[in-house]
Amino acid sequence: xxxxxxxxGDPADTQCVSDQEEYPSAQVRxxxxxxxxxxxxxxxxLLGAGLFTIGFFVLSMRLVEVALFNEVRTxxxxxxxxxxxxxxxxxxxxxxxxxxxxxxxxxxxxxxDPQHVRDSSDAATRLIDVLPGIDLxxxxxxxxxxxxxxxxxxxxxxxxxxxxxxxxxxGFRFLKEQRRVYPHGSLLVHAVGxxxxxxxGLSGLESTYDERLLAQPNRQLTLSIDLxxxxxxxxxxxxxxxxxxxxxxxxxxxxxATGGLRALVSLPDFNPNDNGxxxxxxxxxxxxxxxxxxxxTFKILTAAMGIDSGVITLQDSFxxxxxxxxxxxxxxxxxxxxxxxxxxxxxxxxxxNIGAAKMALAVGGSAQREFLARLGLLDRAGIELPETxxxxxxxxxxxxxxxxxxxxxxxxxxxVHLAAAVAAxxxxxxxxxxxxxxxxxxxxxxxxxxxxxxxxTIRQLLRLAVTHGTGRNAEVGxxxxxxKTGTAEKVGPNGYDxxxxxxxFVGVFPITRPRYLVFAMLDEPKGTPSxxxxxxxxxxxxxxxxxxxxxxxxMVGITTIVEAPNGNDFPTTVIKLDGNELRLAAY
Length: 587
Prior knowledge:
The chain contains 20 helices and 22 strands. By secondary structure, the chain is an alpha+beta fold. The longest helix has 37 residues, at 33-69. It starts with a strand and ends with a strand.
């Protein structure tokens, strides 16, 4: 407020008036230089805001364009690396009890973009220090290339990844991949097979079911294999190989009621976890891809063929006193001949080639060929492996062929072929296609090949071969083992060579109620002092079967067979054996 005096000068007449009354308007007005500066600042602010808005709008439109209409452009090195990525994981493979046999693990693989490597020679030298085993010159050449992507090492371990990262080389990169891992190493390699470094199946079931394992990574592939049986067979077969030094060996355990393989071993083998070069002999699956003249194990088929056809009975006999001749060069002899007339059971237990040949001739070549075809021995085995072979047999089936095939020469089949055929002859006469998959074990899906009565008689003969014949070394106390030896001469430059043999034994237990077939084969085994120099099936392969039976029997609750064979189903059989009468148990 401001004091005003009256015009009379009397202080008493003083009154107050407000500033507003004194000044008609309170608005401040700026003139001159100050007003010009303020206007300039306002224009600049508006211009900046406008430019920012336009820029944000343009950027937003570009992002929309990229997201909706343009492909994302990946750096060259990443594009090339993606071509090598393993993609989805493979499904696990497990045994019949759920034990993992093959699985996939996440790993890191090392690659480089040479355009970002500072010094290729120095980088290669430093990399060798943390990844020993890789070739220095090769790595240096890769790092010096003009490419954007080169592999350095696949599937590194975590410690190796850390060591490479510690090098601080900007050109080194990692790519996540899947690596197939086999926890049991070489134990099942010829059944399971293996997947190569790009995670695709290369052999065995890994190859057969490659698409399924990739398409359904959460669906396990369950095998008929029992890892316990596989380990027992592998261990005993490896032991026999160390002792007899053969070229190779085969071991099979089969469920005779379903055709399911509980064990399949082929030696030599290899570890599928190793990425090194594998010898061709180790890659070869002798159990399914190899075909062999199986020797005297074929006498089981000859006996079954004759008995089932009604041409032969156990009371019949054949003269085996002299070699059997076909022309000048084809002479059939016995290995240790009895040089006399032999009954059918004697032909079987003494493994007479002459007697078996005459039995086959009595049935005839046409019936023999039809019988072998019925048992699946003239076609490729139906097992789920890519490594299978077509049997070899004569196109012109002459009498000499009929005779030699009767004792296991002249037809070449795989061990799996033989196992499936013998299983059918002891299980009541039903043939099942051999299988490695639990889902394919179907007891009801079978084809009758011989009568139950014939199967019963074959079981009697197989038991005789162990108790009185060449298969004595396969006997296991309390298990009632039946079986037959096989010793086949191999063909050499000058015909059959008696020094080079294929020795085998096929066993069945318990013979009173057959459950498992156990087969072992050694290719050109060497005799030892413990075998008195012999390399025959009874001395080399039969002991393998006995030891496997002794191991796997308790695993499945077959500790001992206390029940005596029951003769109610079939009549008691009396035979002549080496001049004496023998009453056969009704197995």
